[in-house]
C-alpha cells in the first residue's frame, strides 16, 4: 500500500456504503456520523456502519462499526485495515480506534465542521473541558496512528483527477447537509444525553 489511501475510493465508500446506512439511522432519530473498515491491500470493504445513539449513547458511528466488526465470525486483523470515519473521531472513538489496534484513520469532516456545519460541538467541548485542548490541539500523528483529512488528499490530487473528486465531495456534502437538517429538526424529541 502506498503511504496514503486513494481519496477516490474513500469518497466512494462514504457515498455508496456509509450514506445509505446513515439515511436509515437518521430517519430513526440517530446522528449523521458513520464509519467503514477497508482492507489496506485492495481497499475492499470489510464493514460499514452508522451512529446508533438512540439505542446506546456510546454507539457513535465509529464504535458501533467496531462493535459490529467484532461480532463478525471471521475478520481481518486491524493492523491490515484502514479506518474511515465520516467525521473526525471524538476522544472516545479515537481511543477506541487506538485500543483496537488500528494505525490510521481517515476523516471527511473535521471537528470544527461538526461544530459549525452540524451544530454538534461536543467533540471540541470535551477536548477543552477534559484535556484543556483547543481545536486542532491533539496529536493527529502519534506513536499509535496517523490520521488524514480527506480534503487534504483531494487537494493533493493531480489536476486531471481532482475536478471529479471535488464534484463528488460537493455532492456528498449536500447529502450530509440534508441529513443534518433532518437530525436537528428531530433531536428535541430524543433522549441522547449529548444530542
Ligand atoms: Zn465518537
Note down, in words, how this protein is organized.
With 195 residues, the protein is an alpha/beta fold. The protein has helices spanning 7-27, 61-70, 91-99, 111-116, 122-131, 150-155, 159-186; strands at residues 34-39, 45-50, 81-87, 104-109, 146-149. Strands 2-1-3-4-5 form a 5-stranded mixed β-sheet, with helices on both faces. The longest helix has 28 residues, at 159-186. The chain starts with 6 loop residues before the first helix and ends in a 9-residue tail after the last helix. The model has no long low-confidence stretch (mean pLDDT 96). The protein binds zinc ion (ZN). Zinc ion (ZN) is lined by residues 60, 62, 89-90, 92-93. Zinc ion is lined by residues 60, 62, 89-90, 92-93.
Secondary structure blueprint with pairings:
Layout: H1 7-27, E1 34-39, E2 45-50, H2 61-70, E3 81-87, H3 91-99, E4 104-109, H4 111-116, H5 122-131, E5 146-149, H6 150-155, H7 159-186
Parallel strand pairs: 3-4, 4-5
Antiparallel strand pairs: 1-2, 1-3
Helix pairs in contact: 1-7
Bin the strand percentage. 5-15%
**Which small molecules are bound?**
zinc ion
Give the biggest beta sheet. 5 strands, mixed
Note the run of SSEs as H and E. Answer: HEEHEHEHHEHH
Q: Which strand order do you get reading across the main beta sheet?
A: 2-1-3-4-5
Helix fraction, binned, reads 40-55%
Shape: globular
Amino acid at each position: 500500500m502506498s503511504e496514503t489511501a486513494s481519496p477516490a475510493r474513500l469518497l466512494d465508500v462514504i457515498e455508496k456504503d456509509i450514506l445509505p446506512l446513515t439515511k436509515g439511522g437518521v430517519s430513526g432519530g440517530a446522528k449523521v456520523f458513520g464509519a467503514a473498515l477497508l482492507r489496506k491491500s485492495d481497499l475492499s470493504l470489510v464493514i460499514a456502519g452508522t451512529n446508533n445513539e438512540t439505542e446506546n449513547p456510546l454507539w457513535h458511528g465509529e464504535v458501533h462499526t467496531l462493535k459490529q466488526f467484532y461480532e463478525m465470525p471471521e475478520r481481518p486483523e486491524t493492523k491490515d485495515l484502514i479506518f474511515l470515519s465520516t467525521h473526525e473521531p471524538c476522544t472516545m472513538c479515537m481511543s477506541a480506534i487506538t485500543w483496537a489496534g488500528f494505525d490510521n484513520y481517515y476523516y471527511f469532516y473535521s471537528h470544527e465542521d461538526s461544530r459549525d456545519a452540524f451544530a454538534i460541538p461536543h467533540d471540541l467541548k470535551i477536548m477543552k473541558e477534559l484535556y484543556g485542548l483547543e481545536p486542532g490541539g491533539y496529536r493527529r500523528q502519534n506513536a499509535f496512528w496517523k490520521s488524514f483529512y480527506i480534503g487534504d488528499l483531494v487537494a493533493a490530487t493531480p489536476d486531471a483527477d481532482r475536478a471529479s473528486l471535488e464534484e463528488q465531495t460537493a455532492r456528498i456534502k449536500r447529502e450530509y447537509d440534508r441529513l443534518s437538517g433532518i437530525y436537528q429538526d428531530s433531536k428535541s424529541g430524543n433522549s441522547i444525553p449529548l444530542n
